Amino acid sequence: MLAFVPSATLVGVAPVPVRIEVHVARGLPSLTVVGLPAAAVREARERVRAALASSGCALPRSRVLIHLAPADLRKDGAGLDLGIALAILAADGRIPREAASRWHAYGELGLDGTVRPAAGAFAVALGEAAGGHGADASRWLLAPDDARAIRAAGPRPRVAPVRDLAQAIRIVRGLEEPAPARGGSDRPPAPDVPPPDLRDVRGQPRAVWALEVAAAGRHALLLTGPPGSGKTMLARRLPGLLPDLEHAHAIESARVRSAADAGPMRHLPERPPFRAPHARITPAGLLGGGRPPRPGEVSLAHRGVLFLDELPEFARDALEGLRQPLQEGRIRVDRFGARTEFPAAFQLIAARNPCPCGWYGSEPPRCRCRPDARARYGRRVSGPILDRIDLHLSVARVDPAESVAAPSGEPSAHVAARVLAARRIAAARQGGPNATLRSAAIERWVLAEPEVRARLAATATGLTARGAMRAARVARTIADLAGREAVRPDDVDAAIDLVRLPAEAPATVDAA
Fold this sequence. Notes:
elongated; five-stranded parallel beta sheet; disordered C terminus; alpha/beta; about 15% strand; 18 strands; four-stranded mixed beta sheet
């Protein structure tokens, strides 16, 4: 007998429909899977065998052929387990074939029959909540009992959470009514530890100002300074200045996380993600890759912040791979003859030392690096990457005595309110943050006044054409923070001061 159950597999972060076809025929008992199954899918045979036995349904003592259509699409992941088990039972006549074909199924089976979340479960369920992958809108999805985030994502969720294979069988047979996920708030619980606050920053007014400009315009920021100057402390306070995720952006972020991580997702994310990978991360770990291709850190930071501490210590290939996402907000990964595209619209904040030992320019002199060593260290980050970073700031160490005497900084909540107001102005004007402004929009919203154009032309000496456009975008952000409709020449001056790459980082600075 022949039966089928619809399911899906991930390609990048998007689910692609898969039809699980099972044929049970006379012959020596065997279980064969065809249709380009990857290792995790081939191993489903043993998981399904044990799960069926634990649920009181032995594997048919016949020849069982499982075909995963389309045959030319590689299938990976354990999400097909549940559909394979149901299709086998339908083909063996133990559940109605017509009933089985009306259900999508996606979930990993434990040896005891429990249904567990699989990578991509949220993305697959989201497709069903929106009406299915081209399927009948009345069709439901059987998925792990982990669907609160799905309930928050879709206007008409059609996801029936199941605890184990036995419950899924009862639902398909009509012995138990499917129930959509209920209970609990769709908002994530308050964190036990509040995010770092800007009030902890003392004696760095220019750095705090640069952080505010970066947050308001979603500009990339590079901090250069010696150890102990507060680069990491500043970077980790940037997420606290950003607005909450819009609903559509929260769904995008959750979809990427689902594709990369099979862990439970009880809620849609509310805050922008913050990713801080170690400098020894591989290019595939940072940019995405593997077999099958999975999202990297640049995609996990989608709609949030990517912090690269000790920027020159990252692999050259990894840093050069940042060109495309910084420019386009997405990244294409070519692996094993297949091209996969991942979203990567992140805000970059990076930090580096002025030399290999970190003490170049300190007083009293502590640096022992040779000039050629400093030059090689500086070349580890290429010019094209630096030219794609909007803001460049030298951060100096604050004198300890002055730091203790200095008052606390402005709270993050106050700065975040100004950032939110500036972002709303930009969104109402051009539909997005100023960091994404293109040439036509810059002409209209920044360079419309002749004196502004003349000031930019006069002060952009030494910058590339891309650098001049970066300065124009930053000037627009500075004007938005001040609540001005038009950019002024002094906004251009302030922007040039933040955009131009410093020759070297000062060693100390007064707290005043």
